[in-house]
């Protein structure tokens, strides 16, 4: 096992590092040089990880801030260094360039790459208006508005400088073929976010392309501001082009050398078009658009495939990018269109290009994000079934385990190396279990108090907001006496995710009368804490969110105040971390098998919190025959599964009834047999933390990348890989 030594430094100056692209802060110069050298080796052994969104807010994982505070490095006589310290210790903690699970997974993955010292760089876009900010009104529902943030003031972000003019930002020229043979060149400046390892002894650079420049063409300005802008299909197509077309110019400008491009979803797949053009030009010369044959294109695509690793994240049709051929003819040239005709044709819709199908065709490896998702993906794309493997998602354990749980684990002798090695939870010493049980129970109670305190303070703010603004508070409890607000120790469900119809956020309220009767019969109080966003263009998703708001008063009254449903607006990573540690059970109720993975439940498991879930996504693997939580609802085979999101096919009545059948067992266990409930929590630590972490997932990706690692690191990666074989067939 490779042992990471903490950075040897106790001054601000020793954390300042630089190269020809600027001056940075966070790791010693020697560490910076090692990382840059690993990414620029002539053997092209680095990996470029490409994602449309990356969620890694420095308010939930902040090793540099922790280090500065621990060492007491809070002041400097140098004004420039003092400004750096002020930024890191007191600056804004949001980088809102993510929409949900896909982006947060990307951030968690990069953190594990950094912790494991893997030669990886990441590429994404910087959106000046982020995703969107959410206001929730009880009568209107979700109200969307632009997110305002300042990259210049945000810790971990640095604007790269031009080596030829260090006082100027670095800009790169990116080619776009808008119906013409010769490209129009568009400029973007480049930010680097340093994803710093827990011990400050390595980092992964995330390069964020910022197209919001004064001279940018109108179509670029319109597409650059907001993640997943859905005002038009053209904006959607342009955002994908802005990511994919920039990859090669960025790598070349920075001198990064890679023969592996990992597409985290197909959003950046247009990079393959540029790679294929290069192959054709190299083989056929500058006249290739006129002389190339279909066989030439397919041969070039085969060469490019050797460079591409592709992760598919969803079986839901809305998650697969399709664009009409007419639209794409106006934003590409004839050579691109010939390539797309061969490689992006849609088997079902002849007049559209299917970019998921293109990513399926051009790669050396494809992976799904759970075993069940693997089987669903094979059903959806039977032509590629032999190639599709499973690498089950994980989460970054250091990000999602709460501070109170951290203090608990730090006191257990057999968990002494848990920060570096999450697999140690599988070998908790028998003599440590009584102490661990006691400390975990105390930590859980503290985290529950923190969450309930946050919710009650929110209710107070909402009450004041009702007087001060036109917004109607989104919670019925805001209008009730404070004695009716939430109380610590009451069984608390957590549900937080994107509000898509297939996730069925409102499933358990399908029959409020039956739900209320269960609570009244046994005098069981229950809190239901919900959060999440619906995409601004997803009207059915917004409708589901509104149903949650509309159910609050009815549940409260019909249950005689025993059932209290609260909605937290503005869901982000900080709220998520508080929820996954503070609730007593994590609820997941998608229509099987449309939830490809579902990483929020893994985050709860990292804190020992049991899941109560449909047997979908990761929970099929994390359920462990009931040792870690409960299951309910339809469990039919994938071959018979209906992948439709049509409201008539969402199985509300059947799966809600299964939940009501299960609920008395869960609540009786919690209220009358707390030791049994705590055993499930301990089983989550023992059985699920060693599997569902991004260190293990990263180790499986190293196989896809075919990296040649130095022996100590190779041994560590191999040990993590041996923890779990994601692609093993389901028993």
Automatic annotation (TrEMBL):
Keyword terms: Carbohydrate metabolism, Glycosyltransferase, Pyridoxal phosphate, Transferase
Catalytic reaction list: [(1->4)-alpha-D-glucosyl](n) + phosphate = [(1->4)-alpha-D-glucosyl](n-1) + alpha-D-glucose 1-phosphate
Pfam families associated with the record: Phosphorylase (PF00343)
Chain positions with N6-(pyridoxal phosphate)lysine modification: 603
GO biological process: carbohydrate metabolic process
InterPro entries recorded: Agluc_phsphrylas, Glyco_trans_35, Glycogen/Maltodextrin_Phosph, Pyridoxal_P_attach_site
Gene3D superfamilies: Glycogen Phosphorylase B
Cofactor(s) essential for the protein: pyridoxal 5'-phosphate
EC numbers for this chain: 2.4.1.1
Protein name: glycogen phosphorylase
Functional description taken from the UniProt entry: Phosphorylase is an important allosteric enzyme in carbohydrate metabolism. Enzymes from different sources differ in their regulatory mechanisms and in their natural substrates. However, all known phosphorylases share catalytic and structural properties.
Classification lineage: Bacteria, Pseudomonadati, Thermodesulfobacteriota, Desulfobulbia, Desulfobulbales
Family: Belongs to the glycogen phosphorylase family.
PROSITE patterns: PHOSPHORYLASE
Example of a GO MF term: pyridoxal phosphate binding
């Amino acid at each position: 096992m490779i042992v990471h030594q903490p950075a040897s430094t106790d001054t601000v100056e020793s954390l300042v590092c630089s190269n020809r692209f600027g001056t940075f802060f966070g790791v010693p110069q020697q560490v910076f040089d090692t990382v840059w050298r690993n990414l620029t080796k002539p053997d092209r052994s680095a990996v470029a990880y490409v994602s449309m969104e990356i969620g890694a807010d420095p308010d939930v994982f902040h090793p540099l801030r922790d280090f500065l505070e621990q060492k007491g490095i809070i002041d400097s006589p140098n004004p420039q260094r003092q400004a750096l310290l002020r930024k890191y210790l007191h600056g804004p903690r949001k980088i809102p360039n993510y929409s949900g699970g896909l982006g947060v997974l990307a951030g968690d993955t990069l953190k594990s790459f950094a912790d494991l010292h893997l030669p990886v760089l990441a590429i994404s876009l910087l959106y000046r208006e982020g995703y969107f900010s959410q206001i929730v009104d009880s009568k209107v529902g979700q109200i969307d508005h632009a997110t305002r943030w300042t990259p210049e003031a945000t810790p971990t972000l640095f604007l790269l400088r031009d080596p030829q003019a260090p006082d100027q930002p670095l800009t790169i020229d990116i080619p776009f073929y808008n119906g013409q043979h010769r490209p129009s060149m568009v400029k973007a400046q480049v930010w680097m976010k340093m994803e710093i390892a827990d011990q400050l002894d390595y980092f992964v650079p995330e390069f964020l392309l910022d197209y919001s420049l004064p001279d940018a063409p109108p179509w670029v300005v319109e597409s650059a501001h907001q993640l997943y802008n859905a005002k038009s299909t053209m904006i959607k197509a342009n955002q994908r082009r802005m990511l994919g077309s920039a990859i090669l110019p960025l790598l070349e400008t920075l001198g990064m050398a890679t023969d592996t491009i990992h597409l985290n979803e197909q959003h950046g797949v247009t990079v393959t078009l540029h790679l294929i053009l290069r192959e054709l030009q190299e083989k056929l010369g500058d006249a290739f658009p006129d002389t190339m044959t279909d066989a030439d294109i397919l041969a070039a695509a085969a060469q490019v495939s050797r460079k591409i690793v592709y992760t598919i994240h969803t079986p839901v049709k809305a998650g697969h990018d399709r664009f009409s051929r007419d639209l794409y003819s106006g934003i590409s040239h004839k050579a691109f269109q010939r390539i797309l005709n061969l490689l992006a044709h849609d088997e079902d819709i002849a007049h559209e290009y299917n970019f998921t199908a293109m990513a399926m065709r051009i790669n050396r490896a494809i992976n799904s994000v759970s075993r069940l998702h693997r089987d669903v993906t094979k059903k959806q794309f039977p032509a590629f079934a032999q190639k599709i493997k499973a690498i089950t998602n994980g989460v970054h354990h250091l990000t999602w385990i709460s501070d109170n749980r951290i203090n608990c684990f730090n006191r257990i002798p057999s968990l002494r190396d848990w920060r570096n090695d999450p697999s140690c939870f599988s070998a908790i010493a028998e003599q440590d279990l009584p102490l661990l049980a006691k400390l975990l129970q105390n930590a859980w109670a503290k985290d529950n108090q923190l969450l309930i305190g946050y919710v009650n303070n929110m209710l107070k703010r909402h009450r004041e907001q009702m007087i001060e603004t036109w917004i109607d508070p989104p919670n019925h409890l805001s209008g009730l006496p404070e004695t009716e607000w939430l109380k610590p120790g009451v069984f608390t469900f957590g549900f937080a995710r994107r509000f898509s119809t297939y996730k069925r956020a409102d499933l358990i309220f399908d029959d409020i009368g039956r739900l209320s009767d269960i609570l009244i019969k046994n005098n069981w109080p229950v809190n239901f804490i919900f959060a999440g966003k619906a995409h601004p263009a997803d009207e059915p998703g917004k409708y589901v969110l509104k149903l949650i708001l509309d159910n609050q008063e009815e549940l409260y009254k019909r249950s005689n105040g025993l059932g209290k449903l609260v909605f937290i607006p503005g869901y982000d990573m900080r709220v998520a971390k508080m929820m996954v540690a503070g609730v007593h059970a994590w609820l997941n109720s998608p229509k099987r098998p449309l939830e490809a993975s579902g990483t929020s439940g893994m985050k709860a498991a990292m804190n020992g919190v049991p899941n109560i879930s449909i047997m979908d996504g990761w929970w099929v693997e994390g359920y462990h025959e009931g040792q870690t939580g409960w299951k309910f609802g339809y469990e039919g085979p994938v071959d018979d599964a209906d992948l439709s999101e049509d409201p008539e096919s969402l199985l509300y009545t059947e799966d809600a009834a299964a939940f009501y059948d299960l609920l008395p067992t869960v609540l009786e266990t919690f209220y009358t047999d707390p030791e049994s409930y705590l055993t499930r929590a301990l089983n989550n630590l023992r059985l699920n933390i060693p599997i569902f972490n991004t260190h293990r997932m990263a180790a499986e990706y190293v196989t896809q990348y075919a990296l040649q690692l130095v022996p100590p690191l190779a041994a560590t990666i191999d040990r993590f890989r041996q923890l779990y074989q994601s692609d093993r067939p389901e028993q």
